[in-house]
Amino acid sequence: MMVMNGRGVLVFLLVLFMGLNVHAQDIPKFMNYQGNVTDASGVPINGEGFFKFAIVNDAGDTAYWVNAGTKMDGTEPDGDAVTIPVTDGRFVVKLGDTNLANMVELDFSIFENTNIYLRVWFSVEGTIFEQFTPDTQILATGFAFKAQVANEVSSSSITSTSIQDDSITDADISSSAAISASKIDSTGLDADTLDGNDSSVFQNRVTGTCTGQVMVGIDSDGSVSCESDDVGAGGGDADTLDGKDSTAFATSSHTHVSGIEIVSGSGSRQVFGAVNTATVVCPGDKIVLSGGWTSMWEGRPSPPSASPDISVSKSFPSSASSWNVVFWNNSDVSDDPVIVTAWAICANI
Predict the structure, then answer these.
(1) Can you tell me the distance from the alpha carbon of 61 to that of 339, in angstroms, rounded to the nearest whole number?
(2) For residue 87, what are the CA distances in angstroms to 6, 102, 179?
(3) I need a labelling partner for 163 at 20 to 30 A (CA). Which of 32, 102, 141, 240 fits?
(4) 42-77 CB burial, b ≥16 within 10 A, e <16
(5) Residue 293 CB contacts under 8 Å (≥ 6 apart), including other chains
(6) Nearest of 99, 90, 80 to residue 44 by alpha carbon
(7) Alpha-carbon distance values, 165 to 160, 162, 170, 198 (Å)
(8) pTM over cut 0.85
(9) Are 280 and 319 in contact, with CB atoms under 8 Å apart?
(10) What's 108's DSSP letter?
């Protein structure tokens, strides 16, 4: 029969680290346990020992934690044992150290229960286990009392005087924390924190003015360049825009002309001493821009040293789309008639 020689010693690493002011998330979730085992004759065990552990309540019928398995009724755990070296009967183990096979992590909520005990089972060959008796009560140390005081501190009792100046760093502040702009030191801000660009690429706020002058430039530092207005109010001219005189530009009320063509009408035949009219009509929707007329002897070239003697009384647009020429034949060279043909310049407007 194997027996435990003396009570096991439990050391709260949690409590010890809290006494050293270590952040809770850095506290290892295990505690040291050591003891001695001998055989029935009192001879210390040497070699590998197989252990099972459970933290149980005062009655021993409820387990708050077991090293492995799912049985939580205080009886021998149904999970595998932890193999621990035993030298001259002495063994040391970190309960909750997940680096050990078959050892699950300790949950800090276990220690919210009062009157808790460590229960241990031991086997030399790993098949038949005997329970150590009695169970070892897990007691608090002086540091644990200090931790209890900290646990009972109300959040409303912590004031600004309780926090040491400069003890809170950037890593302690949540990215979602709402911090008033008045609490931010503006000397520590840079455009780099806004969009990834260096502040030198941004235009400073414009601070300069040009009283009585024209602003012709803005520098990166916010200053401005000014020049005298040598044109005067209302004295601007298109020359100042592109080097061209204003006469090169269309006015606000101008007409666009397209599709210009010269159109001739049918000739009007007339003998000596008679009056007649020649007319030309623009095609489509085009209208007359201007017009004129031509003349020739009918059927042959003009006689030597002679040309049609035509008098035109009117040459005018008779409508928006036609041009008229009123004429008579003054020639008495012969009775040959002359032909007058009206023409017009037509366009779309």
Answers:
(1) 139
(2) 16, 21, 59
(3) 141
(4) eeebeeebbbbbbbbeeeeeebbbbbbbeeeebebb
(5) 278, 312, 315, 325, 327, 340, 341, 342, 343
(6) 90
(7) 9, 9, 14, 31
(8) no
(9) no
(10) G
Residue 150, phi then psi, degrees to nearest 5: -65, -35
For 70-104, the pLDDT digits (tens) are 999 999 999 999 999 999 999 999 999 999 999 99
CB-CB contact of 349 with 256 (8 Å): yes
Q: Which residues are within 8 A (CB) of 188 and not within 5 positions of it... i.e. 6 or more apart?
A: none
Q: What is the Cα 63 distance to its own chain's centre? A: 53
- What Å distances lie between residue 53 and 13, 58, 126, 230, CA to CA? 18, 16, 14, 99
Helix (H, G, I), strand (E, B) or coil at 121: strand
CA dihedral of 251, 252, 258, 261, whole degrees rounded to 10? -50
Q: How crowded is residue 5: how many other Cβ atoms within 10 Å of its Cβ?
A: 13
Q: What is the pLDDT of residues 154-184, one digit of tens each?
A: 666 677 777 877 778 777 787 777 777 667 7
Instruction: Report, in this order, helix, strand and coil percent for the chain, each rounded to 5.
Output: 15, 35, 50
3-state secondary structure of 155: helix
Question: Which region, left, alpha or beta, applies to residue 88 given φ > 0 means left and ψ of -120 to 50 means alpha?
Answer: left
Q: Are 95 and 29 in contact (CB under 8 A)?
A: no
**CB of 40 closer than 8 Å to CB of 2:** yes
Q: 3-state SS string over 295-346?
A: EEECCCCCCCCCCCCEEEEEEEEEECCEEEEEEEECCCCCCCCEEEEEEEEE
Q: How far is 268 from 339, CA to CA, in rounded Å?
A: 5
Residue where the block lists tokens 């040293």: 305
C-alpha–C-alpha distance, residues 280 and 206, integer Å = 69
